[in-house]
Amino acid sequence: MKKITRNTYLIWIHLLTWLFFLSLGVLFFTGFWPLHIAIIRALANGTLYAVIFYGNAWLLFPRFFLKRQFLFYGITSVIMLAGVIVIRLWLMRNVYGPPQNDSFPQLSYLPGFFILASFIFVWFLSLVMKLSDQYIQQERTRERLEAQKLQAELQLLKAQVNPHFLFNTLNNIYSLAYRNDPRTPGSLMSLSEMMRYMIYEAGHARVPINREITFINDFISLQELRLPSKPLILLDVQKFPDSLLIEPLLLIPFVENLFKHGIVTDREKPAVISLKIIQNQLVFKCENQPANTKKPEPGGFGLKNVQQRLDALYPGKHNLTVSNQPYWFKAEMILEIYTT
What we know:
59% of the residues lie in helices and 13% in strands. It has 340 residues and is an alpha+beta fold.
């Protein structure tokens, strides 16, 4: 079924409105004139009102009002109103003829301001319509520009994640290659798979959360290769349906942060990565006792990047709490669940 456009919808609204207006005019005038005169009078009056309405909307408003030439707009509006009033008075005196029903008020008894008021009302209605339409168009333009700006900012933030991760990982593989570690080819293969995900899948607005978890597992395995002893990381990850989606590369900065500050090998205090659904919300927790208690080096932007993306993608629908102390790091992020 073909979708009705906004312009088509507006055309039908205008046509039906004028048809209703003319029908009322014919019904009213048939009580005082023959049918053919009543139709002519209703059509003539409707034409004059249409001249005012569309003359203002299509000619005077865009040519003078939008260009802020308010003096010319006022003068031309008065000229247009005066012209249609003269035409209407001439028609009443010379075309319509006297009414068959004496109860119809004669011209001499009609207050002049009544005719003027009716035309001014139509002119004012046209002005209000154009101002409303102009406001709606400006709002849509503003929303479109904001959406484009937001999309550009998100693409920039997401692009920052990729080289940041690649820079760290290549350093790790370089370290393996420097030591002639036999795990180097496998590491390159793992990096290739992760880059495939980042290039071909992470470009989407949302990805299945199970795919993001696989990426995190591969990342942890790759990071473990550069360490002299395997760190203890407790993965407490719930099994999720394939329909559950998340913004790609949103969780990895927290996992990167664990390795950035070092993971202790104390089995009583393992690093914990938890991801569960609690009361229809996605709850992610990441905590660790850093092996390196020195003040973090400048230049890290991962967590700030996450906060900016959350503000843009989950406005009012997220909660992020980060505690980054010298002897303990803990982050908790709660998101609204998205499904396909």
